[in-house]
Predict the 3D structure of the following.
Amino acid sequence: MASHVHYSEEPNPISLPVSQTTTVSPDVDLQLVRSISHDDRHGDLSRPSHAYTNEARGVSKKGLVKLVSSLQPLREGLPELFKDPEKAEALNDLYLVTWLENDPEDPRNWSASWRWYITFVVALAVISVAFASAVITGDFGGIQEDLHVGEVVTALSVSLMVCGFGLGPLIISPLSELYGRRPLWIIPSFLYVIFNIPCAVAPNIQTLLICRFFCGLFASGPLTLAGSTISDIWDNNERGFAIALFAAAPYGGAALGPLVGGFIGDHLGWRWIIWINMMFAGVVFVLCATVPETFAPVLLKQRARKLRHKTDRKDIVTEQEIFRVSFSQMLADTLIRPFGMLVTEPILLLMSLFISLIYGLLYAFFFSFPVVFGEDYGYSDSMTGLMFCSVFIGLSLALLITPYLEKTYLKTAMEKGGLAEPEDRLIGAMIGAPFVPIALFIFGWTSPPTVLPGGGNWVGPCSAGIPFGFGMVVIYFSANAYLIDAFPDYVASALAAKTVVRSGAGAAMPLSMVQMFHGLGNGWAASLLAFVSVAMIPIPFLFYRYGKQIRSKSKRATAI
């Protein structure tokens, strides 16, 4: 049984007029308590972006608490409700629905087997959409021949889908907070499956590119919701390996694409690549339809509705019902505020650039591998795809170390009295950062013409995938967690900013890689990317040393 502590040291952090006649019903608690594992001082993807109480993560013995006793201090402005004295006073008579202690309906109390099934499904969904973005590279030659276009235009079939990955979350994220996770797991996934059909039968390049963009737009659902769903069902101190799977999935899925696509393209052609991708997406859609609602505010709203019907009491409410946040407000959090934060928050800007570089380099590999192994070694698309197996080796090594990094972080938190600093998340990024330029130097200077094809010489450039796969997953795992902890009250905006910058890099890289490797040669093209990676290495080290000072001067970063 989880131990509990009082939720708030301040009985009424927001000043409200308190009615002298208000009485507390004996079937409610005076105050929320919370599980020690739910540390509200750190960011959590399961927490709504507009939260005035800790309703979703707090618990009480009787499932109802006085609303005014659970209000939290605000970082920005008052909701409209507090500006009207009469409406504000009415809050004294309302009771907030909460989870019970060890509540079986709380997603974090579901059975471990059921939660692992959900984790598997959401990770597979991320793998599926990342796979789709790169699988089409398995037969670019076929697209160029059938639709009479060149290399750069064909590369847009990857870039435009990745653009969709960047734009979709800006809409899906706020919708998931209004309507819950489940509808957003199902509806966009279904539309994504459907948009594969016009891609597969496209009579011209315009149709293919437009529909690939819409595929990316609707396929972005899992990229948006997977981390939130995992946070919904796993406690802070339990989610180490689950989050590691989430961190590895977008990179592993993308690396799997050329491997599978190469074999399909060699034997069946590019249209069958898309048909088979649609089949994969269809299976994943069916599995996603089995994922239940996990977003606590939506589940508590359903409980409040049942309680009102059962007891005929109108004073039983949830935070979402009282402090209604419009879709336009949430949209502003993901469309307007992120760009302002990129300009004013150096931590967010530099960490987003760091993450986007790693993501962009992965897509750079999809176009540089065919140059080295397809053109210089003369390998078929299927053999070139097999070279990505090395990335999976590195990714597997990263999956072994990320749970250890999480345990180290939790141990550090215990040593600091239960609360670690966000910078303690950066250990993984500091470990992984040097591996990326090392991988690029290996790739560039073991490729032709420095090392000519023949015998086992392919092992050199192929092996570069091992340190790259390891470095990219460990960096993403660490940097993503750092942003969440550094901006606990603005998680949605911070992650939206990161997503836009990351997707921009992923979309841009395919358009220039082939020309760069042809123009500079394999060694210097890879070295140019490596030098940029070397310039990025100091970022996690500098924030580890000076991050707390920078945060103390920020309006939005946590000062803890």
Notes: Residues 1-24 have pLDDT under 50 and may be disordered. The two ends are 29 Å apart (CA to CA).
